[in-house]
Amino acid sequence: xxxxxxxxxxxHPLPIGVTKRAQVGELVRAGDMIAAGARLAxxxxxxGARRLGLSSADFERELRVRVGSDVxxxxxxxRVGRRFARSVTxxxxxxxxxxxxxGDLYIAPIVDRWTxxxxxxxxxxxxxxxxxxxxxxxxxxxxxxxxxxDAIGEITLGVDGPDSDLAPSRIDVRxxxxxxxxxxxxxxxxxxxxxxxxxxxxxxxxxxPAGLRVVYGRPTVLCxxxxxxxxxxxxxxxxxxxxxGARAAIHTASARLFVFSTADVARAxxxxxxxxxxxxxxxxxxxxxxxxxxxxxxxxxxxAQSEEELTPSANDRSSSER
Length: 322
What we know:
The chain is mostly beta strands.
């Protein structure tokens, strides 16, 4: 689990009923709509050619609505005559699905509409009725598991240190639409409050398994290390803190956090690879063991004075001592 900036790809599976999707080569930003569609109920058959007294071929020429279009109740679908006009109208709100060989129409009511939004700044590499794939460059942090839909928002730090738990009192409606970094643990109460306040996502070291029972679809929850409680390493937490305010996205299918920021920001704040974390406090460090170092060189690196014996410098001595 490390921060890496490179070119990534994110697949966005599409439900059935696609009506609009981005085309290959199109430039998109995280949060842009790349596909849209609707879920339909059982279709209703509407007599067409027989009602107007036309053949199937003639009825198709008289259609005023293209197959696949959305219609509202009482919309005129086809009409013939002037003085004594005859027409076929839509009995319900829905979508005109099909024109049969006998000249009849099928209309299905729309149950729900859906949209899919990109989770990467980049270009569309693949687009079909099954999936839209976007490729782009970003900082990425691989997590252990993610729950909920894809989330896009601004990163906001919600804790004071990597070993702190996110308190419910720190979440309010001012954080709506943001991705909150929750430190070591987020509880079920935090998830419930975040849902009520419209928070887009929660990122933490771990989440108690019982807390996942209250995932309402939003906010999206990203567990970086597992379940229960886990203190985030400083090499992970410090770049998150430094990237506060940057645009980010949680890709649920791959359990990845993408952050769209310049490379210098995170590199400057990342912990040195020659430092290892030890102790209970967040500021406790221990030097990395250098087994292959020269013993003479190691002795030269030791301080000349210890805390027990402090020898004053020449400038600090009195004139009598000199």
